[in-house]
Design brief:
12-stranded mixed β-sheet; elongated; alpha+beta
């Protein structure tokens, strides 16, 4: 009875914690939408016809026209800035909260001094009070160097814009200008152009006036946008596993490694890891573009998964990262949804071959059988070994071959790739399958352990000079034939993205939406091997195991897609931006 009461108390505490998280999330959601509404109303208060009439010089305050115009620009900038800050507020960033408070004060002051409509003023005051009341909800840490970098970027762009516009005014032909403005007037004009305000210089040609204004305003807006980005961006730490973390991951894999075919990929060297308080479970992840990407299911005991998920979500909240999970199982998706309140989307299917039932016999395997026979007649032979059984000098040659075939230092992959090859010291139980012809390696597969009785495909690569078809089929079938001697009873092959969508679109009677979606996927296959991997995997008669993408909200999917593409090596942020981010 005592144990039952303790379990009930723990379950009640968990329910209470989940209710508290939902309550706090609702509060933040209200603040975020209020910020968007206040920003929009502030902009509309300037654009409205009645408001434009009030933009005449505020004689009752004795303000000149230039001051009124500057105030209008400031109000518009504050409104736009508040709408942009909503994203930072949704991530509960402290700096976003501080800037939102400052902009609310600016908006209130602008409405009072500029005699703008009353409703936006009232809403802005309410938002300001709400921000102050909920200040404890916004505690996410920013990038530790963001403030200095933001200031540097703003100063660089402002100075660059001022210098360029000043040069355009100082060294222009005299017949481009009306009158003979002084140097001071030209410098003042260049300074005002940064905020979109006309200065004292008058032009003979309207196009040159527009050009100087456009250049100045472009640099001013660039300084605002880039400065805000660096000020509000989340930290993107360099991922690295410490020796203690590697030991902890290996311990969990030894005890529970057979639960997930992707578990071993947590040992990638460009991942970080967070453990549950009991250290019976862990979540491996990497931060890319403000998204904390976890892959596969949490490691360890299923009963301890909630603790690891809670720690991971807490880390994401503390740093303002978006949590996302690539390629988790259906069980993992259910636990993530229950414990973290995240949504799940079926991403594709993993092809798992049962060694005991696999055979090259039968009509269904005719294509594979013919490909294997053809490549064998061309003189190809294979060897299947654990890395611990391969001589060191041969491992070195294989690693050199892979680097040469790849054409670069990096291999694509994140959730289902280890990022190293032929490393017997780090991965002694991994299996390497090598195809040779004329005494030289021509193709290679590397599989990592899936528990003690399974293998998961890590790397599939071959010499680009090989023209014969069927090499990959030979490597896989010979691996499957050798599995009994290796004590392996199941093998995970490639992951097929949106496989079920392709299959549904091919069925007789498929609806127009299903056919259109399948057609779009085939078009995308010209650049990414979506349909090709599905067709190739299907040749081996696998069991299709669904894998899911877990995310916080639909609005986050574009950002998660960019982060996932970058992590998997298929693109992402432009290289110029990456160099700027990493340098700063």
């Amino acid at each position: 009875m005592t144990g039952t009461r303790v379990a009930d108390a723990e379950e009640g505490a968990d329910d209470e914690a989940r209710r508290e998280r939902r309550r706090r999330a609702r509060i933040v959601r209200v603040v975020v939408w209020s910020a968007r509404i206040v920003g929009l109303l502030s902009i509309l208060s300037i654009l409205a016809p009645a408001a434009r009439r009030r933009l005449e010089p505020a004689a009752w305050f004795g303000l000149p026209v230039e001051a009124t115009l500057v105030g209008t620009v400031v109000l518009a900038t504050a409104g736009v800035g508040l709408m942009l800050l909503a994203t930072g507020l949704r991530r509960r960033k402290r700096r976003a909260w501080q800037l939102a408070v400052a902009l609310c004060v600016v908006i209130v002051a602008s409405h009072v001094l500029g005699r703008h409509p009353i409703p936006p003023l009232v809403v802005a005051v309410i938002l300001l009070v709400g921000l102050l009341w909920t200040r404890r909800e916004f505690d996410a840490l920013p990038d530790p160097v963001g403030r200095l970098v933001a200031l540097r970027v703003v100063l660089q762009l402002v100075v660059a814009g001022f210098v360029i516009v000043s040069a355009m005014l100082l060294f222009v032909r005299s017949n481009f200008l009306l009158g003979r403005p002084s140097v001071g007037e030209k410098l003042l004009h260049a300074l005002l152009s940064l905020v979109g305000v006309d200065g004292p210089v008058e032009f003979r040609f309207a196009w040159y006036d527009d050009l100087t204004s456009a250049v100045g305003l472009t640099f001013g807006i660039g300084a605002l946008v880039l400065g805000g980005y660096f000020l509000l961006r989340s930290a993107e730490p360099r991922p690295e596993l410490t020796p203690d973390e590697v030991t902890g991951i290996r311990t969990l894999l030894e005890r529970h490694g057979k639960a997930d075919s992707l578990g071993y990929f947590a040992l990638r060297r460009d991942k970080s890891v967070v453990f549950s308080e009991s250290r019976k479970a862990a979540v491996a992840y990497r931060v890319v573009a403000g998204v904390a990407l976890a892959s596969g299911d949490p490691l360890g005991d299923v009963e301890a998964w909630p603790g690891a998920i809670e720690e991971f979500v807490a880390v994401c909240r503390r740093h303002g990262w978006l949590p996302a999970v690539l390629g988790c199982s259906e069980t993992g998706a259910r636990v993530w949804s229950r414990e973290a309140g995240l949504d799940a989307l079926e991403l594709g299917d993993e092809a798992v071959v049962d060694v005991a039932t696999f055979s090259l016999q039968g009509r269904a395997m005719r294509t594979v059988r013919q490909a294997v026979s053809r490549i064998k007649r061309a003189g190809y032979e294979t060897t299947v070994r654990r890395l611990r059984d391969v001589p060191d000098d041969e491992l070195g040659r294989l690693a050199a071959c892979v680097e040469r075939w790849r054409g670069g230092p990096d291999e694509r992959g994140f959730s289902m790739a280890l990022s190293r090859v032929a490393d017997a010291e780090a991965d002694p139980e991994a299996v390497v399958v090598v195809a040779e012809a004329d005494g030289a390696p021509r193709g290679l597969l590397q599989f990592v352990p899936w528990g003690t009785e399974g293998l998961s495909l890590d790397l599939m690569i071959r010499d680009p000079a090989v023209t014969e078809n069927g090499l990959n089929e030979l490597l896989i079938t010979d691996l499957l034939a050798a599995c009994r001697g290796l004590g392996v009873d199941r093998v995970s092959l490639n992951f097929a993205v949106f496989r079920s969508a392709l299959e549904r679109g091919e069925r007789i009677g498929a609806g127009p939406v299903a056919r259109l979606w399948a057609r779009l996927l085939r078009i995308a296959s010209r650049w990414w091997q979506i349909e090709t991997l599905y067709r190739f995997n299907a040749r081996f008669g696998p069991e299709w195991v669904p894998r899911f993408l877990v995310f916080d909200g639909v609005r986050d999917l574009p950002r998660i897609a960019v982060a996932a593409f970058e992590a998997e090596g298929y693109g992402g942020r432009p290289p110029a931006l990456l160099r700027l981010v990493r340098r700063s």
